[in-house]
Write a structure and sequence with these properties.
The protein contains twelve helices and ten strands. It has about 280 residues and is of the alpha/beta class. α2 packs parallel to α4 and α2 (about 40-50) runs parallel beside α12.
Amino acid sequence: MTNKALISQIKTKKSFLCIGLDVDLNKIPKHLLDTEDPIFEFNKAIIDATHDLCVSYKPNTAFYEAYGIKGWQSLEKTINYINANHPEIFTIADAKRGDIGNTSSMYAKAFFEDLNFDSVTVAPYMGKDSVEPFLAFENKHTIMLALTSNEGAFDFQTQNVEGRELYKVVLETSKSWRNAENLMYVVGATKAEYFTEIRKIVPDSFLLVPGVGAQGGSLAEVCKYGMNENVGLLINSSRGIIYASNGTDFAEKAREEALKLQQEMEEILVSSSKFQV
């Protein structure tokens, strides 16, 4: 998917919501456990109920890999269902891969060619030769970890390296990599005060922003400091939407929570001087 197509979808839906499909069999409604594929049935219901309110879905692959081959098959069925029924949706394989070049090439092939995701999250610690293999795929996006929302982020990401925080060095360095125009970045919503500095380095890039909702991040604050003229934000919410109910009404309740966020986003877009809907 091109950036132009993603921006068009944002304008059409008046939304920049990404829904995380992090399926835990211990949390989904009990009646689904009697079905042939509980994970897929859960995802299908969530997708059917929310696809008009969001622009992206983000399965975290760990929640599928944990169930072995059956979990991987559920992931495959999920991405195939999205691509077949809602091809305008931007899909993210939240895999956080990062390894040497040949291995990264195989990871990229798995997610971009076999599963046909639009993007994949990667860890940049090993440098450009671990990231550039992902960037080589046309109309596919690599979403690089930049400044995450977890407590341990301060162990390395904000440490000074010759007078600059490490996350700034990572952002600046990544701009020189081959096909860097295919890069997006993960920036946690719980660090909204950092967005101004991040936008000085990557003013035009899309930022995937977890942490709104269950982790306490503020949508208004993120938009205030992080939005650009193309919005440039994908705000992820997982638990707050998909686990809004564990009863038979789970999909309906998920839609209600997604609608709340979409309406808040629409208000921000309409009132924003940066972006014209």
